[in-house]
Amino acid sequence: MRASALPARHAARRPKQLQSWLQLPTKPYATGMAPHMTPESGVSFLSHLTVVRGLANWKRPSIYGQHIKNSNLVSGVRGETMRQLALVLCALALGGCAIKPIDSQYGLGDIRNNLLYINSSGNLYDPETGTDKLNFRSPEEEEKIIAAAKALNDDHEKPLDQSSIPPPTQASRLFSKGRREVKKFSKTDETCDSPGAVITSEGCEVRVSLDPLSCASFSPASPLDATEEEAYVMNILRTYCANAHRVKDITIFIHGGLNIRAKAINRASDLRDEIFNDGHYPIFVGWRSGPWANLAAHYFIDHYGQAAHRPTLTKVPEFIVVPPAIFVEDAFRAIGKAPRAAWTTFQQQRTIPTGYFFTSTEEQGYESVRANYYEGPVPRCDHGEFEDKDSNPPNPPLFTMCKRGNDAGVTVGQSLLLANPIKWVTAPLIDGFGTGMWTSMKRRADILLQREESYYGYSSQGGGNYNTALTKLLNALERLEPSPEVTLVGHSMGSIVANTIQTQNGDLNVKNVVYMGAAASVKDVANAVIPTLRRNPEARFYNLSIDPYRELLETKAWLLGTIPNGSLLNWIDLYFEQVSAFTDRTAGSWWNITRAAETVFPPDVQKQIFLTAFGYQGSSEIQQGPQNHGDFGDYKWWEQKFWEGKDIGLSQRQ
After folding, report:
1. What is the pLDDT of residue 517?
2. How many Å apart are CA 67 and CA 393, to the nearest integer?
3. Among 389, 408, 373, which Cα is nearest to 611's?
4. How far, in Å, CA of 563 to CA of 557, rounded?
5. For residue 69, what pLDDT is reported?
6. Cα(13)–Cα(587) distance, rounded to whole angstroms?
7. Which tens digit of pLDDT belongs to each residue from 302-333?
8. Is residue 540 pLDDT above 90, yes or no?
9. 3-class SS shares of the chain: helix, strand, coil, % to 5
10. Are 450 and 100 in contact (CB under 8 A)?
11. Is residue 643 within 8 Å of residue 544, measured between CB atoms?
């Protein structure tokens, strides 16, 4: 029982500065309450617990708000006051520092208030219990759903019996997508000054929620019939609402491919306090994108864009025949594409020694486009307002393009790695066997927002709720009033997820879209980002890239150049994806996005677009920013000055 819920006569006897400390931590999703205390670094659990118990007994014979009826304990309570105080002071001394009070009702507390990890089935992973296969439906509900699916599969002509699917809970309706309509306001109305207002000749138009939510909707009195998953999401919203006055926006970060689960959880644990202290409420979105898990899924689970059914007596041949058949298919792909893969790798390698012998098609195209922008080099990001007065033409394009540092060639050691002939043999293997892993990761990126069961013939509108925890959170944020500003940050394949979020949740109040080394194609980025920028004229899109020569040089030193050089983006463009048009290339590559930007982004949104590249650092001690595709996480990627390349600062995690 929280202190705020105790009788007034009890709370009044405690000093006011202690009352907020008396709100004790509880299990968040089980009770609908977030932890209320945050120990400073170095405070042990023992001192934490001792302090809380000591304060809870201050001048009152009660623990956790419950009166003690034992007469031996009640007697002489006031005489115990000094001993309690001494106990508290001793605990603080042993702990090494004091406990910091929180001026909000909940505080960040549990890591689950800032992390949503969706597993390969679309279910929520709980970092506390370590449960990877959560299914929050009761056995009875599960049997009804299985029966409905079986009936549908047995007889496609027979209409689905909606009564066989359990109705959505009250909490499910709370997280459902809200209805909106466009309302018109006159020029004098203050609503026209709000973000998202579309100015017209008569005034403005604003999409207004017909059934908005408020922070009170996620108080401890929220619906009690929520599943554990919905209660988990509800707790994130409660904690945000309690801290909304302390932050500028909600920063949603989606990590990329080739991330194991432990890395995603550790990232959230290490960075969330730093991000919060910088004025942002962080929500980390994780998903199972590890390399070996996805390679195994390619052979045994993911067939034709959906998960294979569990083995049964009638399905055993499928599980015996299909994986070897897929392996043979990959092997023949590698053999058949060997000449092209080897030649592609050679073309890529000869691009790297810039200024020495060759100039690639990519370099020629980039130089031609750059010449249309600037008479000299691309402006440095850290030169004031992104411009060099001596090199800019009178009428530069509307979108902002800047680069930190300069291009550079390769070192002697790097040249030796480029000359390793083994890479001409391994290139076809990367092409043949890596494509399946890439395909599996793309499928799992889609499951982040919708469970696969929703494609089996019945949807959430029919009674079953197949939205993931992430979709439920986004739907609630769309309806929340006042609407919180949202910054979407996607690293690598996280940009693919961020594209889908913008497409499916168009009513989110997105203020910034930040892509770091985006693995999404230029075409897909434009299709998702342009509507976002048009809905909110104040929104900004930042596309961050590393130096293209650093991109081409990236490799694992211990492999000694035995595999083709290049980051994941290079491998996607050269091997994994079918690039039938230039806009099918990855948007995270500096050469790709700069050559396409003026074409794919219409003039009415170009002023909202920032293209930033980080310089080639080499042996220089000057920090130029990320040097490899995976280095973005080492910096303060949640700060605008980093997006604009003006001020490069390492995070405290480093």
Report:
1. 98
2. 78
3. 373
4. 11
5. 40
6. 62
7. 877 777 655 555 556 667 788 888 999 999 98
8. yes
9. 45, 15, 40
10. no
11. yes
Predicted pLDDT of residue 60: 39
**Is the torsion defined by CA of 92, 96, 102, 107 positive or negative?**
negative
Q: Do the Cβ atoms of 18 and 60 come closer than 8 Å?
A: no
In angstroms, the Cα distances linking 644 to 557, 605, 637, 652, 653 are 30, 17, 10, 20, 21
HEC letters along 294-331: HHHHHHHCEECCEECCCCCCCCHHHHHHHHHHHHHHHH
Residue recorded with tokens 């759903």: 145
Longest dimension (CA), the chain: 93
DSSP string, 188-232: TSGGGGSTT-EE-SSEEEEEEESS-B-GGGGSTTS-TT--HHHHH
Cα–Cα nearest to 609, from 501, 484, 512 = 512
Of 192, 197, 216, 199, residue with least CA distance to 207: 197
Confidence of residue 493 (pLDDT cuts 50, 70, 90): very high
Angle at 568 between CA 565 and CA 570, to 5 degrees: 60
Residues 6+ apart with CB under 8 A from 70: none
3-state per-residue secondary structure call for 222-277: CCCCCCHHHHHHHHHHHHHHHHHHHCCEEEEEECCCCCCHHHHHHHHHHHHHHHHH
**Contact of 226 with 236, CB cutoff 8 Å:** no
Q: Where are the alpha helices (DSSP H) in 419-521?
A: 423-447, 469-479, 494-504
Q: Where are the alpha helices (DSSP H) in 337-388?
A: 338-351, 361-373
Check residues 95 and 127 and name the one with the higher pLDDT: 127
| CB 151, CB 163: distance < 8 Å | no
CA distance 532 to 174: 25
| Burial group, residue 389, by CB count within 10 angstroms (0-12, 13-18, 19+) | exposed
State yes or no: pLDDT of 559 exceeds 90: no
Between CA 257 and CA 445, with CA 457 as vertex, the angle to 5 degrees is 5
From first CA to last CA, the distance across the chain in angstroms is 40
Residue position matching structure tokens 């296969």: 133
Task: Identify the CA nearest to 34 among candidates 2, 62, 8.
Answer: 2
- Please give the Cα distance from 118 to 132 (Å, whole number): 9
Distance, CA of 147 to CA of 162 (rounded, Å): 11
In percent, the amount of the chain with pLDDT more than 70 equals: 67
CA distances from 221 to 36, 107, 159, 224 (A): 17, 18, 39, 8
User: Any idea which residue has 């026209």 for tokens?
Assistant: 192
Task: Say how far apart CA 537 and CA 541 lie, in whole Å.
Answer: 11
What are the two backbone dihedrals, phi and then psi, of residue 124, each rounded to the nearest 5 degrees? -85, 135
Q: Does the pLDDT of residue 40 top 50, yes or no?
A: no
28: Cα within 13 Å, side-chain hemisphere: 29
- Phi-psi sector, 64: left (phi>0), alpha (psi -120 to 50), beta: left
What does the radius of gyration of the chain's CA atoms come to, in whole angstroms? Answer: 28
Instruction: Write the burial class of residue 568 (CB in 10 Å: 0-12 exposed, 13-18 middle, 19+ buried).
Output: buried
What does the alpha-carbon distance between residue 551 and residue 629 come to, in Å, rounded to a whole number? 7
Nearest to 326 by CA among 426, 439, 427, 425: 439
Name the DSSP letter for residue 480: B
